Amino acid sequence: MTTETPAAPVAKRVPTERVHHGDTAVDEYAWLADKDAPETIAHLTAENSYTEARTAHLADLRATLFEETRRRTQETDLSVPARKGGYWYYSRSVEGQQYGIQCRRPVRDGETEPPVSVDGAPLDGEEVLLDGNQLAEGHDFFSLGAYDVSPDGRWLAYSTDFTGDERYTLRVKDLQTGAVLADEVPDTFYGTAWSADASVLFYVTVDESWRPYRVWRHTVGTPASEDVVVHEEPDERFWVGVELTRSERFILIDIHSKITSEVRVVPAGNPTGEPAVIAPRRQGVEYSVEHHGHRFLILHNDGAEDFALAYTSVDAPGDWVPMIEHAPGTRLESVDAFADHLVISLRTNGLTGLRVLTDGSTDWYDIDLPEPLYSVGLDANPDYRTGRIRFRYSSLVSPDSVYDFDLVTREMILRKRKPVLPGPDGREYDPAEYEQHRDWALADDGTRIPISLVCRAGTPRDGSAPCLVYGYGSYEASIDPWFSLPRLSLLDRGVVFAVAHVRGGGELGRRWYEEGKLLAKKNTFTDFVACARHLVKAGWTAPDRLVARGASAGGLLMGAVANLAPDAFVGIVAQVPFVDALTSILDPSLPLTVTEWEEWGNPLDDPEVYAYMKSYTPYENVAPVDYPAILAVTSLNDTRVLYHEPAKWIARLRAVAPQGDYLLKTEMGAGHGGPSGRYDAWKEEAFVNAWILDRLGRR
User: Fold this and answer.
1) For a tag on the chain, would you pick the N or C end, based on fewer CB atoms within 10 A?
2) Do 457 and 435 contact (CB within 8 A), yes or no?
3) What tens digit of pLDDT does each residue of 505-559 get?
4) Active site residues
5) Helix 553-564 vs helix 522-537: crossing angle, to nearest 10
6) Residues 6+ apart with CB under 8 A from 541
7) What's the 3-state SS for 644-696?
8) Which residues is 498 bridged to in the sheet?
9) Peptidase S9 prolyl oligopeptidase catalytic domain location, by residue (predicted)?
10) What SS3 string covers 161-207?
11) Are 172 and 181 in contact (CB under 8 A)?
12) So what's the pLDDT on residue 185?
């Protein structure tokens, strides 16, 4: 007996006109934007049923992939404890539980090294500060936002989200008694900061467009109705954030748009004081601030495209005194201050790095790292007075590793490497069985585009291998080499995994970003196609063995390349994809729109931007061509890329190019990041990877 494949859902077509700059566009699926309408939910439910039926033959493969990830994961585990004051702070995971447990243990007399757990068991003398599994009880979704222990260790500020819309409720817990105070603030954003005496907590709230725009001051033990606005940002291009410096001397209020910033400071010992401006905002000038002794460190791009480091006086902020001059091609990304050292996070030649400066000296050195391709960045370093820093390191073949580094002797101490347990076949993970490579594609304008690759050792370069190529290319975000347990299931089935480091990201410095935004955005798309063509030309794969994957703004990339080069791929995965970009950026009432104009341009006021965006936005450019198979994954409660963008895109693809194979999967109780629990996230990844392997002809 055979089961007939159900017919694909057909969305009704209700023509809605949009007129801008003399151009009239018709959107037949605008009705899908009504999240509360029963017909919208019915349509998304029908799409889910269709996708479930069309992928039913992959159920066993999904189960196998999930089990491979689970078997390779040490489910009961404990992070490397980080010392702050008189405690070691760490998190634990427990087999069978979806969420982490946040803990601390008092530092014992003479104890200088972080305590070690056996098989991830709780440390002797442990205090559980928050158990995500208890907080998540009765909810399909759970996310922890703020998690901030006060300087004296007495209070814990934490916030929770149970829908995925990233609107958090802030609470304060007394860590001496375990009681959660009556203090409760709804609709808060990320970011909190304590005063020096822990009597006052600063936090951030959002406006109706989801823009964080207010910093508040809350006195512990008082109703939220008595809280005071410390700063309100009226310019809709700007976000606000708040944090306490590592020295615990100052509260920083960071005010920034995509290209301009301003920082205000409040002494942590005088939390009711008026915020002082470090430097007034100037259009196009970005800077960040870190406190270090008698000075504020200023990382800035004023006449320094890839940023320079300067300082100004704490007592009377004014002129910026140069410390590290601008060096084109070396992008300075952040500076972290410790009592006797500074650590600069940077990138050069497409790789991340850490640079150390000794206080009072202009000498510096870069921390040497062992592989040609890697990713490195500072980990939790809460103590200001320390001679050691902690950083994380990984590569495409090296599991996530935590190191302590002595800033004077330069000794590098491996504290923990993420375990990779034997898979279902019992085989131990051996990095030597895999190869990582850096290759380069040539873009249409002659620019060389880096590609990072990983595969099983000995993978043929004759075009016979299947390949998955990943891309992003927006917001100066870099997709640095990273290790993935679920990816091993692809590599062990002969799949080559590649990352196309296209323009619009930040891999090769600020210019790399500038050449992939605004009226140069199409470089992002043509770069990715150039990388796909190069992978074929270099023998890594063939067009009928190549799947592309991207998420969010990387989902926009996926939709654009589907229109630009449908013949280059056999399948495309677009997760929470920004595929109706023009419509969204035209609507300033939508979350994030106004803040995005400095990234994409303002099509509402600028006809050139309107025409340019219309020429590449995926939804606007669906054509009657032979598209590769497309899987779009979204979430109903996503506030960053609204669910209706991929829903409309799939509906239009079916109407205009009905011969294609298009699937839409909507998480009905999640946000931008998808399912929140780790097992649910593994199941989601298994679903996507099973679809990819099916397109590549591998099981």
Assistant:
1) N
2) yes
3) 999 999 999 999 999 999 999 999 999 999 999 999 999 999 999 999 999 999 9
4) 552, 638, 672
5) 60
6) 463, 465, 466, 467, 496, 535
7) HHHHHHHHHHHHHCCCCCEEEEEECCCECCECCCHHHHHHHHHHHHHHHHHHH
8) 453, 469
9) 482-697
10) ECCCCCCEEEEEEECCCCCEEEEEEEEEEEEEEECCCCCEEEEEEEC
11) yes
12) 93
For residue 580, the one-letter residue type is: D
89 φ/ψ sector (left φ>0, alpha ψ -120 to 50, else beta): beta
Q: What is the layout of strands, in order, in the sheet containing 295-300?
A: 287-292, 295-300, 308-313, 321-324
Task: Read off the tokens for 625.
Answer: 């061509």
Q: Are strands 200-206 and 180-194 parallel, antiparallel or unpaired?
A: antiparallel
- Which structural domains are found in the chain, ordered by start? 38-70+423-580+617-696 (3.40.50.1820), 76-325 (2.130.10.120)
Tokens of 618: 């995926």
Mark 399-414 as b/e (b = at least 16 C-beta within 10 Å): bbbbbbbebeeeeeee
| Angle at which helices 678-696 and 59-72 cross, to 10° | 130
Contact 167, 206 (CB under 8 A): yes
Residue with tokens 């963008």: 645
H/E stretch holding 275: none
- Do residues 621 and 657 make contact, with C-beta atoms less than 8 angstroms apart? no
60: Cα within 13 Å, side-chain hemisphere:
2
What does the block give as tokens for 64? 């196998």
CA distance 263 to 327: 24
Parallel, antiparallel, or unpaired for β 448-456 and 467-471?
Answer: unpaired
Q: What is the Cα–Cα distance from 479 to 448, expressed in whole angstroms?
A: 17
Q: In this predicted model, what pLDDT tens digit does every residue of 325-366 receive, in sequence order?
A: 999 999 999 999 999 999 999 999 999 999 999 876 778 899
d(CA 501, CA 267): 41
The answer to whether 144 and 157 are in contact (CB under 8 A) is no
Kindly state the tokens that stand for 687: 């679903």
Taking Cα atoms as reference points, which of 279, 253, 255, 254 lies closest to residue 266? 253
* 149-170 pLDDT tens trace: 999 999 999 999 999 888 999 9
Beta strands in 211-362 (DSSP E): 212-219, 228-232, 239-244, 250-256, 261-267, 276-277, 287-292, 295-300, 308-313, 321-324, 330-337, 341-348, 351-358
C-alpha distance from residue 649 to each of 29, 104, 587, 686, 694 (Å)? 9, 48, 18, 24, 23
**Coil, strand, or helix at residue 513?**
helix
What's the gap between Cα 446 and its chain centre? Answer: 30
